[in-house]
Amino acid sequence: MPEVRLVGPNGEQVGIVRIEDALRLAVESDLDLVEVAPTAKPPVCKLMDFGKFKYEAAVKAREARKNQTNTILKEVRFRLKIDTHDYETKVGHALRFLGAGDKVKAMIQFRGREQQRPEMGIRLLEKFAADVAEVGLVESTPRIDGRNMVMVVGPLKNKAEARREQQQQQQKSGGRDSAKRKIRTDAPDETEGQNVAAAMDDDARAKLEQARNVAEDEA
């Protein structure tokens, strides 16, 4: 008589039972009998709501796909005798790529006799690795690939982390902008250069005008 090792709906071990008894328990519990380890001896079956199980598995798979981070391999190319400005531009690109969670393949293209000086290429790539160390770590040390020398640098933060950090920075920036706008709109209506006489009542204004006339007559 075939037997199975039966697991209850909450993960409890029921023990080894006949398949007929396992099916009867499934019917009585209004659950499904699902084989979860067919190669085990005896096979392992579990009592569960299979429809609910499939739904929860689909939700988990959907969440996993949403949170999945697809790292892209970006490429920056150098000449062995690159000038300072171009080098700094390449480093800037690499910092941006790594900061966004992507990998960077740094490639030196050798020309003519430059292939006989691989140590110069290694020194340049080592300098590059040091200049991007704040956001990247060398994953593949410099190696010769035909007429080129390549090195791969991986990001210290994955794309999900980089995205969260960017959103946090945008939120902080938005808060600062709101505060600045509030400061501007809270400014008093009266300016420092406003005429003091305009704020006086009619009696005070008349007295001021009389004083002016007296002063002009005496002059």
Please, could you describe this protein's structure?
Belongs to the IF-3 family. It comes from Glutamicibacter bergerei. Residues 73-155 form the Translation initiation factor 3 C-terminal domain. This is Translation initiation factor IF-3. The protein is of the alpha/beta class and 219 residues long. Helix content is 47%, strand content 25%. It has helices at residues 19-28, 50-67, 84-99, 118-131, 159-185, 202-218; strands at 3-7, 13-18, 32-37, 44-48, 73-79, 103-109, 136-145, 148-155. Strand 5 (73-79), helix 3 and strand 6 form a beta-alpha-beta unit.
List the helices and strands and how they pair.
Elements: E1 3-7, E2 13-18, H1 19-28, E3 32-37, E4 44-48, H2 50-67, E5 73-79, H3 84-99, E6 103-109, H4 118-131, E7 136-145, E8 148-155, H5 159-185, H6 202-218
Parallel strand pairs: 1-4, 5-6
Antiparallel strand pairs: 1-2, 3-4, 6-8, 7-8
Function: IF-3 binds to the 30S ribosomal subunit and shifts the equilibrium between 70S ribosomes and their 50S and 30S subunits in favor of the free subunits, thus enhancing the availability of 30S subunits on which protein synthesis initiation begins.
Keywords: Cytoplasm, Initiation factor, Protein biosynthesis
GO molecular function: translation initiation factor activity
Q: Based on DSSP secondary structure assignment, what is the total number of beta strands?
A: 8
Identify the strand order in the major beta sheet.
Answer: 2-1-4-3
Order of helices and strands: EEHEEHEHEHEEHH
| Count of alpha and pi helical runs | 6
For the terminal residues, how far apart are their CA atoms?
132 Å
Largest sheet data: 4 strands, mixed
As a whole number of angstroms, the C-alpha radius of gyration is 38 Å
- Enumerate the spans where pLDDT stays under 50 for 5 or more consecutive residues: 187-199
Helix content range: 40-55%
**Average pLDDT, all residues:** 81
Family: Belongs to the IF-3 family.
Function: IF-3 binds to the 30S ribosomal subunit and shifts the equilibrium between 70S ribosomes and their 50S and 30S subunits in favor of the free subunits, thus enhancing the availability of 30S subunits on which protein synthesis initiation begins.
Subunit structure: Monomer.
Keywords: Cytoplasm, Initiation factor, Protein biosynthesis
